Amino acid sequence: MRLKYEMVADGEDNRIRALRDLDGVDYGDIGGIVSNEDNLSHDGDCWVEFGAKVLGNARVADNALISGNSEVSQNAVVNGNTLVSESACIYGNSLVSGGFIGGGTHIKGDTVIYGSPTIKSGHIVTGRFDKTPICIAWNRGIVCFDGQKGKINIDGDSFDVKTIHKEIDHLAEMRDICSEDMKDLEFHIEHIKEWMNRYNYL
Question: On the chain, which terminus has fewer CB atoms closer than 10 Å, C or N?
């Protein structure tokens, strides 16, 4: 395997320096801070930009980019073509496999995010219970279990589980959601309902 970076001391921290050209990175560029080489894969074009950090047992792989004073830590994994920026934080046992995470958003717990969502409004997204995701990002936003109300939350709006399919038809019309995205949304809703049933919320 051809190494793509080396670690250089920066006070008490380890900073990365590129050993070859990557997409958007030139040989010799100085990047962000990592705890060890396990934090950043040598494969793909994944990178940690100056100002960003990947710490603990966290892992960045594939073509993911961590930038803009963001931090990935604990046991979180960021891969795919994910862009993490704007002081976003990803930690816990979270898995982020696509999309843009920014705007000071915190992704934590056992959250699983995939597809191509844009999450940048300062949300705190969390999942829990034996690594079962209760928040799933879809291509247009976030679908999750609303623990306080025992309902399903879609992009900030709560829906009763028993009537949700009638309600999301109205949501789709109001937000001009295409049929393909609706299938994606309904798939995730069923996943959340299965989770709720498993833990006796239904």
Answer: N
CA atoms within 13 A on the CB side of 119: 36
Q: Which amino acid is at 131?
A: K
pLDDT tens across 111-155, in order? 777 767 777 766 666 654 444 445 666 666 677 776 656 677 777
Cβ(167)–Cβ(173) below 8 Å: no
Alpha-carbon span 14 to 156, nearest angstrom: 39
Q: Which strand ranges, in their side-by-side order, compose the sheet holding 100-101? A: 47-48, 65-66, 83-84, 100-101, 118-119
Label residues 56-66 b or e (16+ Cβ within 10 Å = b).
bebbbbbbbbb
pLDDT 10s digits, 27-73? 999 999 999 999 999 999 999 999 999 999 999 999 999 999 999 99
Judge whether residue 13 has pLDDT over 50: yes
CB-based contacts of 120-124 (< 8 A; 24+ apart in sequence): 120/86, 120/88
CA angle 190, 160, 170 (to 5 degrees): 85
C-alpha–C-alpha distance, residues 180 and 30, integer Å: 42
Q: Which residues, 6+ apart, have CB-to-CB distance to 33 below 8 Å?
A: 10, 13, 14, 15, 16, 48, 52, 53, 54, 55
Coil/strand/helix, residue 6: strand
